[in-house]
Amino acid sequence: MTEHDNAYHGDAGVIFAARAAEAGLNSLHERPAMLRMVGEVAGLKVADLGCGAGQLAAILSAAGAQVTGVDGSEVLVDAATRAAPEATIVQHDLDLPLEFLADDSLDGVVCALVIHHLNDRPRFLAEIRRVLRPGGWIVLSTTHPTADWGYFGGSYFDERWVTRSLGEATMEYQLITMSTLINEIIDAGFVLERMLEPQPDEAMRTVDPERYERYRSDPIFVILRAHADK
Ligand SMILES: C[S@@+](CC[C@H](N)C(=O)[O-])C[C@H]1O[C@@H](n2cnc3c(N)ncnc32)[C@H](O)[C@@H]1O
């Protein structure tokens, strides 16, 4: 465990697992957009880093990928093991090296809403590049920097740790600018292919009309696809 361990331990994991299973922001907005950016995965070896309760790992497994899901939270590793029984789920702190994954061993990596929780993003991205085969891809989402700026206020350029509630629990993450996010990926040896600022799926209109209207106009997530330049 690292000094600043932001995995969703204890109650945070329980609350997140319940939310992740509901129809809402994750299932009808961020996750379908991630899947559009990922594309076909049949026969591919894919890691889901920060797999949470395992919904994405389950979908990728069902689509024919050989999936390794990784998360630091024991609660969420248990949930992911149940949700994605065909995947291999590993409990591990993503701020530490991915020593259980060999060099050049993966076709792709998905990393949904995790990187803003980590202490050393450049080291994490370097590890992802190491485990990807030459040309292997990463699809990574995070909270949209302008959404965080709107929520927390202050200077957009003041990159700092913040705490936000997750029901009765809290979570910590780092605010970063869009330039930092994109340049760290490029500096780690990736070639950017595509960027998406997704809007909610139409199904969200009936499930949660208020959020549907808000997020049709306000960006809340950003998703990037890149490949390893090696
Ligand atoms: C917002 S959730 C996203 C989960 C999942 N990717 C999804 O989209 O449903 C963030 C996840 O990152 C994990 N996480 C945060 N910091 C971590 C760390 N240092 N090591 C491993 N997992 C971490 C949390 O436990 C949590 O599952």
Automatic annotation (TrEMBL):
GO terms for molecular function: S-adenosylmethionine-dependent methyltransferase activity. Keywords: Methyltransferase, Transferase. The keyword Membrane does not apply. Residues 48-140 form the Methyltransferase type domain. Transmembrane segments: none annotated. GO terms for biological process: methylation. The keyword Transferase applies. InterPro entries: Methyltransf_11 (IPR013216), SAM-dependent_MTases_sf (IPR029063). This is Class I SAM-dependent methyltransferase. It comes from Microbacterium protaetiae. The lineage of its organism: Bacteria, Bacillati, Actinomycetota, Actinomycetes, Micrococcales.
